Amino acid sequence: MKDKSIAPTQRERIMREDDFIVSKTDPKGIITYCNPIFIEFSGYSEEELLGTQHNIIRHPDMPRAAFKLVWDTIQAGKEVFAYVKNMSKDGGFYWVFTHITPDLGPRGDIVGYTSVRRCPKREALEKVAPVYRKMLDAEKAAGARDAIAAGTAVLVDLLKQTGMSYEELVFSL
Fold first, then answer.
1. N or C: which end of the chain has fewer CB within 10 A?
2. Model pTM?
3. Which residue blocks in 29-63 are alpha helix, DSSP H?
4. 36: pLDDT strictly greater than 60
5. CATH superfamily of 20-172
6. Residues 6+ apart with CB under 8 A from 165
């Protein structure tokens, strides 16, 4: 469970170029595996991470609509790529470029998810951070009940303006 007493700070941890943060979850997002780089950047011990919701590292700067898009995509059995701002146990943050794939069982059913995160390009973060801020502002203005729809509307509008799909936008950054 996410500790709500952790306050975000401006301390950024920057991934090394050859780092890969890897985690696996069950279908409900409970962490079943985490590699040493995940432990390092999250600031949590392996014992604290295993059996915990993956949102333990969710940064409050991330719009809810972004996570809805991710969940809708992977629950449909598709892979997704995204830029994500995570929060460490000490309140610091680190950006990642993530690739999440569903793990399929012998009958083709989803038995979990694997996420591999790498160091994002700084230029991409300079473009995505303002979009997330705009989505988050729309979510806050709409209130809890309509937050996800409001954040999604901002993203859909941006996609219409660029003439790109979400995946095309992510890879263009």
1. N
2. 0.93
3. 36-42, 46-49
4. yes
5. PAS domain (3.30.450.20)
6. 159
